[in-house]
Amino acid sequence: MTSDESVERYHRQVLLPVIGTSGQQRLRRGRVCVLGVGALGTHVAMLLARAGVGFLRLVDRDVLEWTNLQRQVLYEEADVEAALPKAVAAARALERMNRDVSIEPVVIDVDATSIVPLIADVDVVVDGSDNFELRYLLNDAALELNKPWIYGGAIGTLGTTFTVIPGETACLRCLFPEPPPAGSVPTCDTAGVLGPAAALVGALQASEAIKLLVGAWSACNRTLMTVDLWTLEIARVTARRRPDCPACALGERRFLYERAPSRTVALCGRDAVQVVVHPRVEIDLALLAQRLAPLGEVRYNPYLIRFRADGYELTVFPDGRAIVRGTTDPAVARALYARYIGM
Ligand SMILES: [Zn+2]
User: For residue 312, what are the CA distances in angstroms to 155, 197, 198, 332, 333?
Assistant: First the structure.
């Protein structure tokens, strides 16, 4: 892109006294990791790409489904029909919006073994996840690496956000020392979500990321902010650092270092179980597709295989991870994995 185009493209943003030419240059050098490109993450990634943030790493474990299109703005019907991973489809959409931005899609289930390299070389991490397991892991990893991160959540008609700057603001565990027990909090699979609630939180997270990137840290949100888009009530609770916070005060990194090496988890509300194998393996998708073809219906693209047999559907990724649909029983999922893919 020529410098004339660039000047014109960012003109309205450079006009802002809080950004200006130097802020725009900082955005250009800025590096952001968006963990989860669902409802929140697609809005965040789109706003940051349009703003000219130089590098975006988009991390997501999921493959597009029809239910995503209601609120996940970067995706189109054809992406669902092609069974594209979200990270790949998001990267394609953003590349069409701004060729200045370098975009790295990563299709992976983020866990304690993979999170550090994903966030070590960025300036800001944005939480676009849909689960507390990942947020507590991110909180530990971000404190350990001294990276600011921006919490976001949208459920029903409510949106919530706060910003964590290690050493300066409260962290997730200052506010909520322990994760909620599994199944105790509503998820968007069970409670639904209003698209604009996710859009609002995504916009708030993107503006926090922009503030962090241009160095306007003092302008960042230091409250736990909740907005109900239906009643239009806004609650802002000052987020105070706790002197006895296990994570940011006492240095405990339980979620980062004390993890089971291998796991099989039911995916909430989706009649599906995810099987993750450790150490990761490398699966030749073409070869596996050939092997499975006589046993059932097989579809594949460069990112995954989708295999249907016996009323189940297995989606298998090149790193050995699989999503088994048609059961919520981890034992059944592991048995199907062993039968068709091999442990
Ligand atoms: Zn803390």
Answer: 29, 34, 32, 10, 9
CA dihedral sign, ordered 93, 95, 96, 98: positive
311 Cα: distance to centroid of ligand 1 (angstroms): 46
Question: Are 3-257 and 263-340 in the same CATH fold?
Answer: no
> Picking from 257-266, 269-278, 296-305, 327-336, which range would have the lowest pLDDT averaged per residue?
257-266
Q: 293 phi and psi, to 5 degrees?
A: -50, -40
Instruction: State the pLDDT at residue 225.
Output: 98
User: Which structure tokens are listed for 117?
Assistant: 């390299």
Sketch the domain layout of the chain as residue ranges.
3-257, 263-340
Nearest to 107 by CA among 303, 316, 270: 303
- For residue range 154-212, list pLDDT tens digits in order: 999 999 999 999 999 999 999 999 988 766 677 766 789 999 999 999 999 999 999 99
> Going edge to edge, which strands form the sheet with 223-228?
102-107, 55-60, 31-35, 124-127, 149-155, 158-164, 223-228, 233-238
Q: What average pLDDT does range 225-250 have in this prediction?
A: 96
Q: Which CATH class is domain 263-340?
A: alpha beta
Distance 286 CA to ligand 1 centre (A): 47
Active site residue 188: yes
Q: What is the mean pLDDT of residues 296-316?
A: 92
Cα(114) to ligand 1 centroid in Å equals 23
Q: Which of 171, 174, 188, 220 is catalytic?
A: 188
User: What separation in Å is there between the alpha carbon of 231 and the centre of ligand 1?
Assistant: 31
- Give phi and psi for 69, each to the nearest 5: -65, -20
Residue 262 above 60 pLDDT?
A: no
pLDDT band at 310 (very low <50, low <70, confident <90, very high): confident
CATH, domain 3-257, list 3.40.47.10, 3.40.50.300, 3.40.1010.20, 3.40.50.720? 3.40.50.720
